[in-house]
Amino acid sequence: MLRVAVESAAGLPKKKLGSPDPVVSVVFKDEKKKTKSISNEVNPVWNETLEFDLKGVPLDSSSYIDVLVKDYETLGKDKLIGTAKVSLKDLASSQVKSLPVKNLALVDENGKNFGGTISMLIGYEPPAGAMTNPQDQQDGSMGGNTAGGEEGDGTDSGVPGAVTSPGEPGQKLRTRTRKRHNLANKPQDFQIRVRVIEGRQLPGNNIKPVVKVHVCGDTHRTRIRKGNNPYFDEIFFFNVNMLPSELFDEVVSFRVYNSSSFRSDCLMGEFKLDIGYIYDEPAHCILKKWVLLSDPDDSSSGAKGYIKVSMFVVGAGDDPPVERKEEDSDKDDVESNLLLPAGVALRWVTLKLKVFRAEDVPQMDDSITQTLKAAFGGQENKKNLVDPFVEAWFAGKKLCTQIIEKNANPEWNQQLNLQVKFPSMCERIKLTVFDWDRLSGNDAIGTTYLDLSKIASSGGEVEEDYPGDEFSANKGETGESEMGFLPTFGPCYICLYGSQREFSGLPDPYDDLNLGKGEGAAYRGRVLVELSTKLDGKPDKSVEEISSDDILVVQKYQRRRKYCLCAVFHSATMIQEPGEPIQFEVSIGNYGNKMDQTCKPLASTTQYSCAVFDGNNYYYLPWGDTKPVISVTSFWEDISHRLDSLNIILYISNRLQTNLSMLKSAVLSKATDARLVEIWLKLINQLMEDISSLKIPDLEGKPNLTSLDIQIKKLRDSALESIMEGAKRLFEEATDVTKCLSIIETWLDKLLQLAEEPQNSMPDVIIWMLRGEKRVAYTRIPAYQVLHSSYCEQACGQYCGKTQTVFMQYPMDNKKGLKIPVQIRVNMWLGLATEEKKFNNYAEGMFNVFAELYENQAQVLGKWGTTGLLNRSKFSDVTGKVKLKQEYFMPPVGWEWEGDWHVEPEKTLMTEADAGHTEFVDEVYENETRFPGGEWKLAAEPYTDVNGEKVQGPTEIECPPGWKWEDNWTFDGNRAVDEKGWEYGVTIPPDDKPKSWVAAEKMYHVHRRRRMIRPRKRIPGVKTVTDKKDTGDAEGWEYSSLIGWKFHRQQRSSDTFRRRRWRRKMAPSGRVGASAIFKLEGALGVDMESKVEEKGTKAEASVQQFGANRPTVSCTFDGPNAYHLRVYVYQARNLSALDKDSFSDPYVHVSFLHHSQTTETIPSTLNPTWDQTLIFKNVEIYGDPQSLAQNPPRVVMEIFDSDQVGKDEMLGRSTCVPLVKLTSGVDGSPKLLWEPVMHKNAPAGEVLVAAELILKTKGNDTELPLAPAKRGEKLYMVPQGVRPVVQLTAIEVLAWGLRNMKTYQLAPVTSPSLVVECGGERVLTAVIKNMKKCPNFQGNVLFLKVLLPKEEIYAPPIVLKVIDHRPFGRKPVVGQCTISSLEEFRCDPYATVAEVAMSSKMSLMAAGPRDLHVNIDDGRQHLLEAQPYRRKRLLIGGVSFMLLLERVRNAAHTLTKVMTH
Prior knowledge:
mainly beta; Immunoglobulin-like; twelve-stranded antiparallel beta sheet; six-stranded antiparallel beta sheet; 72 strands; 11% helix; globular
């Protein structure tokens, strides 16, 4: 191994404009490596180490390196600054192990010295087996110091244990001691700095690791983290004064413990390193190295995880180097930055990644020649404007395929050989497809990963010994499962996801998605790869061509079968704002993408619809009884054997999860033993029945079979057999239900690990929401979730043929789901075309297929016609951009016309602005103009809307039927206007109105306007225009003031444009059932014979008509079912504090489909109790009630903080599933349950809710439950039977004082008081006047009487807050703590004897107080859960418990005792 530590350069020449950006390249035997560039610096400092793998060949006397210093250029070639050559003769002769090069002169390209110099340090470690100095061999080979690409180390030599550790205690590194001769042999001051950065692959489940660093008798520890890959980033300082010779023999010890385990085996791994080794490194430091942890008692047990560290040894006058910013972890050069302990040997392996081909790669470039060709009438072909190549990263090593120019379906047929040491700490291979660019940087097309943990096995997965699992199967019963397998994959396609496929010359705002940063929002193609692993040996080439035989073999893995996808949209609700009309698009791969011209046009989009207000907060799409349907056909490989196995395991795990949740709820609610045993027996029996009856499909004779399929099948069979044996033992031997929970959770974790399919070549189903032509929101649904299977019913996807609720999301949402763009309920079915008739069993309603177009007219001089249409045709599509004619349409193959063309208005595009509102304000803007300084006169368009479009005047607007006026027309003075409501502006041509408005009139203002408003209210029980059917124009016209999306039914005087929709129904010929829609492939054909007057070829015409005349499919239901919904919102706990006083004013906004209501607001609390029932009296839902009962719509609860100023802020969102009652005789009330509240994908408290959905029989409302009791005029309380049973409870708190209060907002706490809150009640102590003189409270006893639930699961927490009383009435909360569980302090006041109680009271008062630590955080108070220590004390009338809270962050102490009577 040859290491070149590039330290610095000096005296580099300046450029004409500014300073250079120097970068150093070092060339050794045609291998070039370079440092990073330093911006604008003539004296740069790099401190970077470049390593060259010698491939087992030692240096000879003629060896040398070339050093090139260049000026880095972003575009173009780097410019040379200077060069130098360094001979390695001294290193080759083994006279020295390191060669310092100080101030080496640089020469320019003409060989002249320009004054620049460079400094570096060159280190050499001979390969194992090479002839070295006998003095050096006494201490053993240094080949194992790092795992950095050393192919000739002790592992390759075949000698076990030849890899030695640089950190073996007491090991003398004599070959490196020459650098220490400058140190005087006397005690000196040194500082050892150790930075613990992160950990990876730490063993165990649900671990909480902590790292302890021991140096020279002193120990420091990191904070406790969670998970197997924790991030610490903590630095420790150790100051010593000792002899250098003694210091260099000391050891730095890293020990990683599992803090959640109290057993003797909580030590997870250890690594030791001599301080002398660190000091001998360049700059006396080790920067960002990975260290391998091992078992200190058994070094042969293999890796126990890895931690990344930096270590410095700093003497007097030393300046430690600066660590650079973290790079992409996938590009981390792990192999050259790995330190191994003694006795641990890693084996060289070669990962052979075969990259065959890719398909469906999107356009990435814009071609000038294509643009010119299109301008002169030629055909523009943009689909191949991409130059793709594949880049593979693993363990810091990168390899690339060749570049295939201008090809969207490239074939590389190359093998990338990645040589690494195994087992590797890197968990995944990163594959990125790039588009090569000649001028600018390469653009990422898409990124995917091969996770080694999913495509390899160490052999110990099934027999893992889980803590406390005494019911696991016997070890070693299945000999095969003990043997693992090396990484293997494919041949199989891997799907790429990223930003939208549509090409634009503008910068892509979602480009990071193509690099794998975040969830990809769109399909970007697929890559066919195969991975195999070869032990030992060295590949001849890093990149080589794949043999023709292998290319022929992989052909059979590319056979396609036809799949059919249908989606029925039942509702689209919770839309934030109306905006433009909305359309949904469903695609799988490229199929269905309406903007992609590489596939046939399909019926993959819904009709455009305008959103309607739901009467409270959101908007929804008024589809009514006609639901939009999409139909997409696609072609993919048949991988049913993989997805069937996946769905079966998911079915077993979902049933186990449901039963386990029931068992946990019963334990928390303290159900009877009989009930616990009943639930537990049901769980065990169902689990054993599922495993025994549901067998994973046999692989014999299956297509597309790979070696990984066989290995995963063995792994799954063995794991299921192990769980089965454990369940049998648990059934026979278990005595305590609660002790079994951890074992069952372990089984569930194992099932979820098995339910992962790495070789899933079928793309996800992607649903897009479009506003107009702009993509707004998306959701990705894995195809296996909706896939139909003929193997068995349980092998079908979880949502196959079932209606599911989906929350769509914004692409690359930085707010992490804070706002929901839309909630949809969609029923999807995906299956092979040979099984399409199975879809008839799932379909509901009547399917209809239509061809449609729009007839357009404009009004000119009072007459309607086609004269004023400008760029629109007489007949067009819904957007008006594509010209159509009725005679051009022809039905697809297998379909025929049923009836003639007829006019049928699209009601969902003609929604009035007041639809859904009970109160509405009509507005009109009155406009006046003048010449500068002249008199104001009515404008040419005196009355407009806010956008300047012409509307009716106030006198012409009539009150619509079903409404009544609340007031007369008045101007709106609650805006930035003058006293008469006018606002002023200046019109700058070509605009016809000002862009900005002001309230003060100036001489130069030429335009003014004011907003006239008139409120109206809906009359209950009277039908409005939107409620009545067959209203509007008799001829089916819909009107608009301008050509656009806003249409209305009745003609107005300001209207200048109108259109009407023509439709013609189609019917399948010779086919019956809903599955006939899968034959709707391609556009509705164009009759070219009747198109003789049109110019151009047939091909050009088909391109112009592409996708414009797709058929529209809908599903009609006979009528809705009426339901009665009740949502019981009782309370919440541990909500976030958003107000300045560390409180919030929460209220809940409850949404169910297109209905929503809001609870009352509870001021100043984080644990509110609403105790409110929200009643939705008439909810209309289409579809079969039995299907609805299986998958009911979810009730969405959004908790907001009410603010007097500004917009209300969201505290979190939660959902619950209502209890569906289809018959009035069903007994049982819904049970209140704690549902988690999430805020930006993080927990933000809990809310206690329940809901029930009751099917109403027609004309009979008497069967509904009685209305709950009212609190106030409109608020219903939670009824008896649902609400918790409460009892009057006394809480006694003994509080002595405060200690060690930290500053808050840079000011000391001087006058604090304690507040105790529980169940809506609160009590305060007296204010401590002066903390310095007397930090104790005047009164020590605080007493509350609270109505608390009897069941502990419903009990509210006790909240302790310290408030500081500051000048000007400010009372900030400077610290707080939450005690979640009150069970430890409950007692029965009538169960004790008075004499015993009195003695207990005396002993309690004599006992020393304990500390309660209250968290203080400047500006943000975290609710921390206290862990009580139970100590019983008897009192008259009750039992007192002494509260001890474990230490939490920061040092504010409250001396407190809490007693609950």
